[in-house]
Fold these 2 entries.
Entry 1:
Amino acid sequence: MSKKQAIIIGATGAAGQNIVEFTADHPWFEIGCLSASERSHGKSYRDATAKAVFFREVPKEEVMEMKVIGADHVDPRDYDVAFSALPTEIAKVQEAKFAKHIPVISTASAYRYEADTPVLLPDVNPTHISMIEGQRANRGWNGYIVPGPNCTTIGLVSTLKPLLDKYGVDVVSMVSMQSLSGAGEKGLRADSEYRINALKNVIPLIGGEEEKVFMETNKILGDMVDGKLIDASINIHSTCTRVDVKIVHTEAIHLGLGKAASAGEVKATFEGYRSEAQEQKLPSVAEQPIIVVDEEDGPQPKKHGDYPKMVTLVGRLRENPLFNNGISYVITSDNLEKGAGGGAVLSAEYLQVKGFL
Ligand SMILES: NC(=O)c1ccc[n+]([C@@H]2O[C@H](COP(=O)([O-])OP(=O)(O)OC[C@H]3O[C@@H](n4cnc5c(N)ncnc54)[C@H](OP(=O)(O)O)[C@@H]3O)[C@@H](O)[C@H]2O)c1
């Protein structure tokens, strides 16, 4: 099987760099073009990423030496698939331009809330890809746009899904402690005002984030009924904060299940959860998507990377007397990996095995 030619738009930013890490040596995809803004046009990928480096493993030399091309200079028809990691307002225009011709797998929120667009997490809501044909027909596109969830929503829904399936979930309260890289380049660039203010600090507001968590969680956990997506109806309240951590988001979650379960039963439910993405043995999927850590003071963002890629870590699992059938736990989730680049690549893998690429 020849590899699909991929263009990565927004390749120089935080999420884009992670897509590059996941595709640089991918068995099914080959990087055909690295694209970004006019500011990066003509620079080597190494120089264009030097302002804020997010790589865990620096990609191979031939990728670092590729010339970055401004998004307005590329023809989508030269590629089989586009990965987009653009700021939302730019994504709105560029992704539609690409989707006229080829599939676009996106980390941006530009199309997440459109009625004909799935927000895909292959190990949570794989059936939502049935919305793609409707989207194509509505918009007259040869391609389509499939965004992934916001990086904060991903960890939350990954753990809610097995609980919803087994016990039901009525109410969720969540407080996030989100890393600086979640703010993108401005979160890590040394002279960024946002970064300077956030150092040794906690900022108790991330504009628009709590609304995203609410809308996306109920959309992702919704059911396809007669070809239509019916959102879930979980009562969710969240407080999203920025903390002085480089990578990996932490979330404290308190919830009320639909029926009683002990902390031990919930642990077994988390550890036993598998989806079609695991059955398909997709190249980027975690064999066990949720790991309950043994350490009583875990999980911690600093130690998240000690575990396999693309997992959600759970700890502090206990019963919560304040809620009906209450359960509390803490998660860590890598905002750049499962939360952005790795998640986008996993979606592309799932779409490929389903014949959509
Ligand atoms: N960071 C995360 O943890 C995370 C997680 C999930 C989703 N997301 C989403 O992913 C998207 C990218 O976020 P990020 O954090 O990676 O942002 P970022 O670090 O600021 O990177 C933005 C990227 O977009 C490019 N860009 C900016 N303006 C452009 C234009 N006019 N035309 C073409 N390219 C342009 C930049 O290129 P230059 O380098 O040339 O400026 C850069 O490659 C956002 O929609 C964000 O909400 C981010």
Entry 2:
Amino acid sequence: MTTTTNDTDRAEVFSRPAAQINEEGELVVRASSALGCRRSLWYSATGYQPTNPPSEESLTAMEAGNALEPVVVRAMERAGWKVDAADTDTQDPQQVAVRIGPNLLVTGHPDGTARMPLPEDEAAAEVQTLLFGDAAPAYGDEMVVEIKTRGPDAFKRWRTLGAERSHPASVAQAAFYSLGIHDDLRDAVIATMDTGSRTWDYEVIPADRLERALQDACEWLGELAVHHVQNGPDPDALPERDFSSGSWQCRSCPFLDICLPGAAEASEEPETEEKEVSDQEARDAVAAYAQAQESIREPEKAKRTALDTLKAWMRRKGDAKATVDGRTVSLVQSTRYSVNYRKLNAVLDPETRADIVTESESEYVRVT
Ligand code: SF4
């Protein structure tokens, strides 16, 4: 958890560069950046100054997210979890360092560990164990907890697709922390709050899937480590670009202007030629939309009231169908189905899930 205090030193601890070269000449990468663009990591490690620092708005959003993270911890505790969260006031928060090669370290500050409340039947079994003399609290095993806050769309995407597909960097980060804290890979939990609705949920990533995430991240960073061995800390020996100029990774990259000069302006231009619409025409469109909304409000309300009346009448009669003044009125039964994504994500690996839960992009306009 990256937390905020008024203390400058502590803020610096958490805002350190994504990658550095330490006094021993080793490459040190932040766990949260382990799946980041390797050219960007190289810029950072070899001392380039960011050309595109985060905007004021991004910083505010980031700080708002950070401020909510202790709220997630308290919500977990109210839901029965036992959370051992990192001390947010210390200037020297617990740091883990995982060596993944002779010249490469991955470091970070874990949010803490958590133990899940056991379901009642399992807790009862634990009490039996307790009777025989073993200390057995009604909690599951200790897991690394990674706390995130996401906007409504990202939250929905995470819940539906699972963290490995929606936010693989978070899973890799949890894997490094698990290895750093426990010295082996255990299940880890990612707890996430929707910054829009202030609801939260969690996903447990089983240890075997955490291991795959760790392997992927080590493979990704391993190539950068080889680059470092071959070139030394040479700022001019740039690795290949990992992403293309239109990607979100490049658009939010602090080194965009060095890597892709002119791309920032280009990305602001519309990609395709579209019908020219003046500001006045847009204002007229909003006014027309509001007027249309207003004109259907009363008829919609009348329709709902009429349907409620007919529903009560049909229920009293006990009929599913009736004819009234030449029109057929039916009481239709429908069943809703829902998917428990938390359980689905827990039992299926990401590839199997990708066959079952698919995603597609669409575009629409919303006027509020
Ligand atoms: S602009 Fe894109 S390709 Fe270049 S360093 Fe940044 S993320 Fe990598």
